[in-house]
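ENTRY TYPE: paired fold submission
RECORD: A
CONTENT: sequence, then C-alpha cells
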Amino acid sequence: MPAVYPENIVERNAATQDSIWFQNDMNPVSTVVHNGKEASIYCVGDVRVRVEDFVYRNVGEVIDAGVTTDEQLDEAVERGDIEFLNNNWFELFDPALDDVTGIICHTIGDAVEEAIKYVTS
C-alpha cells in the first residue's frame, strides 16, 4: 500500500479540495511513496480572482471575502460573484527523474489518487 504524506491530507481537506486553497510556495503539498518510487504533488500557478471590483491574488483574500469551502466557491462562481482570471493547479513531480510527470489535477483528492496510480504502475 502506498504511503501518503502528510497522512490524511485528503480527509483533512474534505471541504477544501480545490487547488485555490493551497499555496504555490515551491514545497510539495503532498508526497506519495511506494516500493522506492515517489511522486511529489506541487501546487503550481498563480491565482487571480475577481470579487466585485477587487482582484485577489491569494487564498487569504478569498477567505476574507467570505468564501471558505469548495461548495461556497462553486456557488459564488455559478452566481457570477467570483470570476477566475487565473487559477493554479496540482502537478506531479518525480524526484528520481528530476522532472514533472505531465499529470495535472485541480483537486488534492484527484492529485493524490493520480500519484498513487503513478507510483504503483
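RECORD: B
CONTENT: sequence, then C-alpha cells
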Amino acid sequence: MRHTRAIQRDRSKRLLGAPPDAQIAARLGELVQPAASAQQDQARALGLRDRLLSLSVILAIVLSLIWRQIGAGGSEAARLLEYEGLLWVGLMHVSQQAISLRLRVFPAVLFIAVVQAVLPVLQTRWAGRERPLPPALAWAHAQYTTVLAVDGSTLDALARKVGQLREASTRPLAGRMTALLDLCSLLPRQVWSTADALAHDQRFWVQIHAAVPAEALLLFDLGYTNFAEFARLTLAQVTWITRAKTNLSYQTVKYFQRTSRMLDALI
C-alpha cells in the first residue's frame, strides 16, 4: 500500500505530458493497430458492437492516459480527442460519459490479447539490435537459453465512482498482477493478473512453469519460496536464483567456493 500511495502522490503533482513526437506515435500505431485488428472477431464474440469507440480507439486512449499522465476521469481524454487527437486517432467528438462508460465495460481480456500479440514482435526487434549488455548479463546470456525474472505487484486502488463501488466503505484494490521479464531486453515475456488483490505470488506458479523454457535462468524474490516448486524447476532443467529466508534451516554437504565475495555450496 505504501507503493500505491506513492504513485498516487506522484500523479497528483505531475503536469500533463506532451504528446509523443510523430515518429514515436507512428511506431506505436504500427505495433498496436494490427494486434487490435486481429482481436475484432473476439470482440464481436464477446458481444461488443462496432462503434465509434472501437478497440483501436480505446487502446489509443489508454496508452495516452499512461504516456501523458492524463487524469482517469475521461474529461481530459475527451477534450484532447476533440482538439488534438490521440496517437493514431484523429480529431473526434466523444463525450466524457461515453469514454468512462466504454472503459468500464470493455473486457480486459482484449487488452491482454493485444499485449500478448505485441510482446513477441518487440522481442524479435530487440534480438536484431546490437546494443551491448552489462558484463554479468552478457555472461548469463551466453550460458542460458534466456535470463528471466518473475515478480508480482498489487494494482492501484479503484475510485468509488461507478456501479457497486459507490456503496463500498473503502477503496478496493484493483487486483494483483505478475510479470515474467526478460532481463536482457527488459521486455515482459508474459503478464498475468487476477481480480483478487490478496492473491499471493504462489498462485502463479502453474503459469510460471508453463512459460519458462528448459535451460533458462530464473530469478525471483522471497515471495516465491516453495521447495516443491524449486524441485519442479530443477527437474525441468531450469536454473534458479533467490534469496534465502533468515530462518532457513539447512545443512552444508560440500563447499565449492568460499571467498569474501561468493559462497557456493551443496546444502
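NOTES ON RECORD B: The CA atoms of residues 255 and 265 lie 4 Å apart. The mean pLDDT is 81.
STATUS: closed
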